[in-house]
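$ fold --in a.seq
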Amino acid sequence: AKAVAYEGAGTIEFIADASDGLKPDRIWFMEMNTRLQVEHPVTEEITGQDLVEWQLRVASGEPLPRRQDELAINGWAMEARLYAEDPAKGFLPTSGEIHHLPFDVTMRVDTGYDWSEVPPYYDPMLAKLIVRRRTREAAIDHLLSELRGSVIGPIKTNASFIYRALEHPDFRNGGVDTGFLERHSENLTEERALSEAARDMAADYFVGLRQQWDSQFASRDVWTDTRGFRLNRQSSTDLRLVVDGKPEPGRFNQTFAPDNNRRLPDHAYFDGETVWLNESGQTYQVTVERHGGGHSHHAHDGDILSPMPGKIIAVEVAQGDTVTKGQKLLTLEAMKMEHTLTAPFDGVVAELSATPGAQVQVEALLARIEASGD
């Protein structure tokens, strides 16, 4: 800072090799940002200082409000960045609506989103979740508790990834290095099926809604009542649940109980059609299959679909070109990231709808490759 006569708030980043002890010749300058970093709330929480105010005062020509010897650290603070991204798909950015983004007032949440839409044009960070507790272990437990009880949807986020990282034994014990994510990538990013207990709870809730409807509007005549019935047995209904758009195998046969007061737990809510629930930080969308619905459509193996909303910045092939497996077809840019789409196998570009500069939506058909010999 003295060498460049720098004045003002700023962050200087270094990388250090401490494998043989921390030594001056093993520390390298990386970059400098003339602003506060995203993690500045951690410092604010453990020092009780408002660094944004400090930044404005210094920019106005005032001296630093406090000297180094006037500062003290109190407790442990931890921050998690909540992103609109899909960990199971290589952390690709996502965009769309946020119907639910609730957090407890016992945790600091810095965010600009509330029941709104995430556009594809900016950094996909939704919020910073900051907790402070007396110990590191207590801070981890508090953040886990908040993520466990918060249903975030319908947009895909990295909440489940954060949750699994926090509860991992290596993280809890402080055994984290730059290889932590690579070593545990599959466990931290895989999509997990909804548990049987959670499915039963959702099915039971839908049955309760049906029972309430019947008690108010349906006929009590067994010959016109639409519920199934059997002689000398309680009436029941068959449900088939759809979780995140995919029908669950098997049906749930639920008996109508005499009470109508089925309630969802704190980590779930109902929006009039869908039960949204949280399990280990992951949000699931549960509905009931409707008979006579539309048919599902599956992409052809050679269809090149946009993995996210974004802008096409380069097209490397033309219709009719012969391509080999892994060959670069086009590049998509979204939320400060570039994503390269490649040929899934040897073949011919049978269809090409991508053009440089075009904005595309998620799962838009960009190209279609026909395998050699088809």
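$ fold --in b.seq
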Amino acid sequence: MNAVFYRRAGPPDVLEVGELPEPRIKPRQLLVRVRAAGVNPVDCKMRAMRVRPPWQRFPVIPGSDLAGEVVRVGASVTRFQPGDAVYAMLSPFTGGAYAEFAAVPEQQAARKPVNLDYQAAAAVPVAGLTALQALRDYGRLKPGDRVLINGASGGVGSFALQVAKALGGTVTAVTSGKNAEWIKTLGADRVVDYQREDFTRSNDRYAVVFDTVSSSSFGRCKSILTPQGTYVRTLPSASSVLHAVTSAIPLGRRARIFFLRARGEDLDQLRDLIEAGRVKPQIERLFPLAQAAQAHAASEAGHTRGKLVLRVG
């Protein structure tokens, strides 16, 4: 099969395009013909990581987001059959999405939203699951809560804004001024230009502050949280771990460090929101699979508006 892979850790130019064996599936896995694969910052971090997981062997096929058709199912699979259109999240530690075929655990897949093509569906899993789980499970967002999304124009941020609105939140979106009008079209109730205003000095109070770019801290955001408010960030730091531990008792303001879980049932919930028109993936650019290195370079350059996606096949 045609695939993108790397034989050593390093910058984007270590990515190669060539032929690799088709993956073999286990009893609880699906063999999916991949039509599109999302590009996420975690793909770039895994590619550049010098210390590898002990089970990982080169060459490594990167990629966690995919959408495509089921070709074959394992003997113990019960929820899918050949021909089903699906989208899924693979573990970043195993990867496998940047290829014509991928082995997908059944519990990490869901049926594709009927109103999305494969490219749009492939933009959903990692960013959409991050937004949903961070706000619903970590922030415990309730209808009527005020929410601040830091980094609202990025892949996770653009989903978080829409998911927060779908869950009944009133959303303040932090982004650059050039993205303000676009962010309003996604449903933001208020937009803060971080280049002109420090949102941590606001007089407003929020039940949830979701720092999708991990550019702030619990210490800086504590003053804008309600007495029972929660600060959630996507990337750990020494101070964030300390704050998460010291604020673990469920009294007063809390800091939470987010850990993503690949769950098919949550992709089902996202599909329902997408089919209802309440959430729509935002794609900045499509790349052919052979230009995966350029897509990684674009991701690492930052300031991507929405998601980057690879067309496969």
